[in-house]
Amino acid sequence: MIDQPTESGSRIARVEVFPVPPRWVFVRIETADGLVGWGEASLEGYADVVSAAVEQFAEYLVGRDAALIEDHWQVLTKGQFYRGGPVLASAVSGVDQALWDLLGKRLGVPVHQLLGGAVRDRIRAYGWVGGDDPSEVADHISAQLEVGLTAVKMNASGKMSRNGSVAELDGVVARVASAREVLGPDRDVAVDCHGRFTLATARRLAPLLEPLHPFFIEEPVVPENSHVIGRMVDATTIPIATGERLYSRQEFLPVLQAGIAIAQPDLSHAGGISEVRRIAALAEAYDAVIAPHCPLGPLALASCLQVGFATPNYLIQEQSIGIHYNKGAEVLDYVADTEPLKFVDGCFERLTGPGLGIEIDEAAVRTASAGWERWQNPVWRHADGSVAEW
Predict the structure, then answer these.
(1) Is residue 158, in this structure, part of any structural domain at all?
(2) What is the distance of C-alpha 380 from the center of its chain?
């Protein structure tokens, strides 16, 4: 039988899940011979629910061969009648990452070598910047440039009215113009609409931004309205990006067919390393690149990088090191050795350690999880009292 381990030591002995500040979920899988792999199943705002899903998956996994990554992925995603969605996909993602980490450690090689070997030596990174007015944007960007980054991403707006007023649109343009002034022509700024815009408002905004040459416009419409994103693609020369709230190849297919330039699967939401590799291959068939979403923890970031080092159509990597919204813990707080995740000329150098290439500080994780408090995103409302997109 395929699920019988060839080596008793590689049998999964224990699966643990740790919600940790600020809003992440780490998965720890240990084999019978004491080898440990880590993954990240973070789904912001739903840590308890995802943790319960991982614990249910553990009932199947314990006692099975940890090396059978693809078979476990198939069972966990297709073995039950009701499937898919962000909760189950995130739980699978954390398990999948941990199993790849285990296999790399057992063989003494980084995951990217198991995926076919490196196609690049470094991956460019970008950071997120806030700021409600142009001067604040300029200050935040300057701070990112000081740590060596050559690209940033900013929210187009805060709460956006349903039909985008002149003042709101002018404010977006002013902030992006301030960013471009600081960055100059040799560095990049991406603009994230965060699904806060209607299609009509996003189509009005894009031509106003074209003279500022954004790197891309992200999530101009909510993922539920992916069927109209092709009209956004046709409305502008700016590359359109989306995908942080899409969870499978099947969900990426229609937006790729609609002409998006950049797919943004999240390694902790979209089925982990196994599925994101397939999403990248699908994107390549549509002449699109991938730039995985990752405002998460160190395991999600390391998983992204492992895929990136083995994936030809990989554009750039989001990361949240030092970002102000990580309240209560920082990305590197859970890493025993921060050297592999340092910036070098705005890039991450190729990870060379076994597995995911980083070493987790288990004591720090256990301590943090013991004091973890539930996180929820705020609920925004329009002036008339109705719910607004966050």
Answers:
(1) yes
(2) 23
Looking at the structure of the chain, the number of domains it has is 1
For the stretch 189-230, pLDDT in tens is 999 999 999 999 999 999 999 999 999 999 999 999 999 999
Domain hosting 270: range is 113-354
The answer to whether residue 293 is catalytic is: yes
Rounded to whole angstroms, the Cα distance separating 85 from 252 reads 13
- Tell me, yes or no, if 194 is annotated catalytic: yes
Marked catalytic residue, from 72, 140, 269, 293 = 293
Q: Are 269 and 53 in contact (CB under 8 A)?
A: no
Q: Is 79 inside a domain boundary?
A: no
- CA 40/CA 28 separation, integer angstroms: 9
What are 7's two structure tokens?
Answer: 């080596």
**CB-based contact 301:292 (threshold 8 Å):** no
Contact yes or no for 357/303 (Cβ under 8 A): no
Q: Which of 72, 194, 227, 324 is catalytic?
A: 194
Considering the entire predicted model, what is its pTM? Answer: 0.95
